[in-house]
Write a structure and sequence with these properties.
163 residues; 10% strand; HTH_MarR-typ; DNA binding; 3-stranded antiparallel β-sheet; DNA-binding transcription factor activity; Arc Repressor Mutant, subunit A; single chain; DNA-binding transcriptional regulator, MarR family; mainly alpha
Length: 163
């Protein structure tokens, strides 16, 4: 592609995101979880205990589609569900110590993979790249640009969702 032609950001990000997700999947599977389960555990780690509805908002996953993930994670001892004292119909979902351990192991494995991917760049270039990504995400969020999934629609989880 000639230097004068500029590709849209999404056209550049999507293939990279897909490749990163493909590289992350076996790392997550080695820890007994799927990409969506990692997204759920990260949302609980970052935001604390939540109802299923709140967790749906944090993850961009429809609340009914979360059930299978919550069931698996609870069966594995990675999260707990208890009645919400403010609403007996709702449950409070919390990550367990075991769940936090899985998140730490997965994050470490993913960071190692990312470091290998970016090793051809200098430390300053890597730091600059991450800063640019963080600024783009922040600007998109503060300007109301779509950074997540519209209510009622599921998106594919991406590496950024898992952080």
């Amino acid at each position: 592609m000639p230097q004068t032609e500029r590709r849209e950001l999404a056209a550049q990000f999507v293939p990279i995101t897909r490749l990163l997700m493909q590289a992350e999947e076996p790392l997550l599977e080695a820890n007994g979880i799927t990409m969506w389960e990692y997204v759920v555990l990260n949302a609980l780690t970052a935001g604390g205990a939540a109802t299923q509805l709140e967790l749906s908002g944090r993850t961009g996953r429809d609340k009914t589609r979360l059930i299978e993930h919550l069931d698996r994670l609870e069966s594995a001892g990675l999260l707990t569900r208890r009645p919400d004292p403010a609403d007996r119909r709702a449950r409070i979902i919390e990550i367990t110590d075991a769940g936090r351990g899985v998140v730490r192991r997965c994050a470490s494995a993913i960071r190692t993979m990312e470091d290998a991917l970016l090793q051809q760049f200098s430390a300053a270039e890597r730091d600059g790249f991450r800063r640019v990504l963080a600024v783009l995400a922040e600007r998109a969020q503060t300007r109301g640009w779509p950074t997540g999934t519209p209510p009622g629609r599921d998106a594919e989880p991406g590496p950024a969702d898992a952080r």
